[in-house]
Amino acid sequence: MIEAPRTNAIRTQLARLSRAARFHGIRRPGVAASALLGLGLSLGAGAGIAHTAQLRSEVAAQDAQLAAARRQAQIEINALAARMGELQAQANRLNALGDRLTRVGNLGEGEFDFTKPVGTGGADAVHDMPRNQLDRGLATLDAQFRASGTQLSVLESLLTDAELAADAVPSREPIAGSYVTSGFGHRADPINGGSQFHKGIDFEADVGDPVMAVADGVVSFAGDRSGYGYTVEVDHGNGYVTRYAHNSRLVRRVGELVRAGDEIAKAGSTGRSTGAHVHFEVWQSGRVVDPRHYLGRAPVGRG
User: Fold this and answer.
1) pLDDT by residue (tens digit) across 125-177?
2) Which of 298, 208, 291 is nearest to 251 (CA)?
3) 298: pLDDT strictly greater than 50
4) Cβ atoms within 10 Å, residue 234
5) Per-residue pLDDT tens digits for 196-230
6) What is the dihedral of CA 17, 18, 22, 28, to 10 degrees?
7) Do the beta carbons of residue 210 and residue 263 sit within 8 Å?
8) Which of 155, 156, 171 is nearest to 240 (CA)?
9) What is the 3-state secondary structure (H, E, C) of the chain?
10) Strand partners, 87
11) Which residues, in sequence order, are CB contacts of 188 under 8 Å at separation 6+?
12) Shortest CA distance to 201 belongs to which of 300, 302, 293?
């Protein structure tokens, strides 16, 4: 102990005083008693100070251990928070994908509401979860999110491709609010008489009425074609080509990308025609087909 030398010195001095008292025949007992009492108090005070210092040292060590434990706990909490943030981001991505697929697939919004919480419950007793069990649960959830995200991405790609393919198939009428004045197939020629094979459908129109693309595609011809007058042809891919003839003016050029419902010309009566109308043809893989098989599948105009 730190106080041992001092205690030994006090004891030595006390022994000397005791011998001196005996040597003098205890002539002054009051003085000897006072000396002995003072030395005892000094010894007790020294022991109390040493004990207090030891307690303070132990408390400081415990405080340091507690602070270190708190820092380590906060580090672990921060790590779990970062993991939770990653999982939340993946959940948001899956919800966004689900909403987009719901719109693309024309699914009922009520049945596929990704903002509605999922109902859960249970009557079993609840216990504290060990850290290793929590880590395993987070890892499993992360793997499930990643697998679901991959599957939804593939499904989105398939649905998007299907949607693009559908938009490239003729499915609208080339002019709004009109009616058919001449159908597809054999008919009597309206100019010279006799039999004629009509390759398209004629729609009633006034000069200047907007003529619209019936599907997405690229303008492959825009100019004056013999017998057809001012003509626009749109290549939709997948073997589909549509033709719009007898226009008074063309508003698109070769190579331009058009979407279904975009204006491509103004109706007219150019070429071999008896009056203003829109002549519309559909070609599939190089063969002319009846446009009626494709009309009326979608509303006229964009959106």
Assistant:
1) 777 777 787 788 788 878 877 777 776 776 666 666 666 666 778 888 999 88
2) 208
3) no
4) 26
5) 899 999 999 999 999 999 999 999 999 999 999 99
6) 60
7) yes
8) 171
9) CCCHHHHHHHHHHHHHHHHHHHHCCCCCHHHHHHHHHHHHHHHHHHHHHHHHHHHHHHHHHHHHHHHHHHHHHHHHHHHHHHHHHHHHHHHHHHHHHHHHHHHHCCCCCCCCCCCCCCCCCCCCCCCCCCHHHHHHHHHHHHHHHHHHHHHHHHHHHHHHHHHHHHHCCCCCCCCCCCCEEECCEEEECCCCCCEEEECCEEEECCCCCEEECCCCEEEEEEEEECCCEEEEEEEEECCEEEEEEEEEEECCCCCCEECCCCEEEEEECCCCCCCCEEEEEEEECCEEECHHHCCCCCCCCCC
10) none
11) 194, 195, 196
12) 293
Percent of residues, the chain, with pLDDT higher than 90: 31
Output the pLDDT for position 238: 83
List the end-to-end C-alpha distance of the chain, in Å, as a whole number.
93
Q: Which residues of 251-275 are buried (b: 16+ CB within 10 A; e: fewer)?
A: ebeeeeebebbbebbbbbbbbbbee
What local confidence, expressed as pLDDT, does residue 240 receive? 92
What is the identity of the amino acid at 287?
A: R
Residue in the block written with tokens 């419902």: 261
* pLDDT single digits (tens) 226-250: 999 999 999 998 889 999 999 999 9
Query: Where residue 300 falls among pLDDT bands split at 50, 70, 90?
Result: very low
Cα distances (Å, whole numbers) of residue 115 to 74, 104, 145, 149: 32, 18, 17, 17
